[in-house]
Amino acid sequence: MSGALRGALLIAGTTSDAGKSVVVAGICRMLARRGVRVAPFKAQNMSNNSVVTLDGGEIGRAQALQARACGLEPSVRFNPVLLKPGSDRRSQLVVRGKAIGTVGARDYFTRRQQLREVVADELASLRAEFDVVICEGAGSPAEINLRATDLANMGLARAADLPVLLVGDIDRGGVLAHLFGTVAVLEPEDQQLISGFIVNKFRGDVSLLQPGIDQLTGLTGRPTLGVLPFADDLWLDAEDSLGTVAGTPVGRPAPPHGTDWLTVAAIRLPRISNSTDIEALACEPGVSVHWADSPHQLTSADLVVVPGSKSTISDLEWLRAKGLGEALCTRAAAGRPILGICGGYQMLGRRIVDGVEHVDTEHGSLPTVVDGLGLLDLDIEFADPKIAQQVTGAAGEHAVHGYEIHHGRVHRTGDPAWLTIAGAPEGSAQEAIWGTHVHGVLESDEFRRGWLTEVAHRAGRPEFVVAPATSVASVREAQLDLLADLIEKNLDLAALETLIREGSSGGAVIRTATIGSN
């Protein structure tokens, strides 16, 4: 970048999972490699994939990855408002990292002014401290029914006078219509801030797309700054739940070091949280991980993982209704490996007492006391305050690290502990069943390798050999560098710099008329 670069930019998307998060991460890493002091910002996120910051706050996982791209520790400043859906109608509201209650759409509407002030304060603080702030929108700015309460898209762009680049996923089809239509439905003042487009996940010959891009420029007066190619190697830290459809693989595993593969089925719970826990397993050569939501998908798997849940009792009811609870009990009786993480761990116990809130279903309010699957000798009670903290400890001779986000407490257990966290026993290890409240523990490389060796033994896979040097942190860094390489090679960096430095008025071709105006 030429000269000192200062400014901010908003990356919006035509849809959820259009590529906003990865584009922001790629731009952040590209700028950081060039010596720019850059920070990410997402005013409001809606996700059950969160991480815990050093000071015990929660932020969306994508913002933690973007912080890493910038060479920064995750901070609640980068994602001041987080919504964690617990049902179709209500979400837990997390402000500046702390849960302050649950809200519905109408409740959220009444809080909009307070939240706008929180967002404005944090963004102003970041812009004063860093050279560049790259902001990420939420969902799509074309959700015009939500415009009045918008904190993260055009509401943020208007309030902070940010130029906006709109990302569209061509892999879904209809990307040119998505880009044009998104701009067209916006009100004129919002349209003026849309400064260009980025086409994401393109496969094939770009020259075949160029006529369409030229026509889009003619129709909108806005340039396309680049076409990013589809990259098979980008899959780690996938925040959006759209990527966790049952039956789909996680990652692209390298061939095994031995002659045996190890297969993993991860149950796709309706209110799954921190689904990215299983990605550390998918980093291992010879470990094949798939999402599952039916009993037959568990039958052939060497290991079944029951991941975290934002609504443990509701998801436990679903598990039973789908026949998955019975399938897990059959596995346990046969001594076949099962791992439960956080909410999944709680489901494996004998009893759950919900003292925080009742969960409503179509059949009425669920009871506050329910039976678990009984695979572990464990009683859980939900209580306030919510536990959110980073933790370190050990499993035998191996160091472990991770984070906890849960209301559930172990009220009683008769199981041997699996881990030692801060000197205290944690989790359960009973024959071929393991459980823990700690997210991210599988990213502890030496621990993961030793545990997978035991899993393979119990699963009857004697020829499975754990790779000696897989590093999840190194895989993550390599993916961030790949993102930055894609940005550098495929985006118009001069135009990008101009937008950051000069705002929407500095765009190469910014049309003064609005689409649809006469």
Automatic annotation (TrEMBL):
InterPro entries: Class_I_gatase-like (IPR029062), CobQ/CobB/MinD/ParA_Nub-bd_dom (IPR002586), CobQ_GATase1 (IPR033949), CobQ_N (IPR047045), CobQ_synth (IPR004459), GATase_3 (IPR011698), P-loop_NTPase (IPR027417). Residues 10-235 form the CobQ/CobB/MinD/ParA nucleotide binding domain. Residues 263-446 form the CobB/CobQ-like glutamine amidotransferase domain. It holds the Pfam family GATase_3. Keywords: Cobalamin biosynthesis, Glutamine amidotransferase. PANTHER family: COBYRIC ACID SYNTHASE, DETHIOBIOTIN SYNTHETASE. NCBIfam families: cobQ, PRK00784.1. This is Cobyric acid synthase. It comes from Nocardia caishijiensis. The lineage of its organism: Bacteria, Bacillati, Actinomycetota, Actinomycetes, Mycobacteriales. The gene is cobQ.
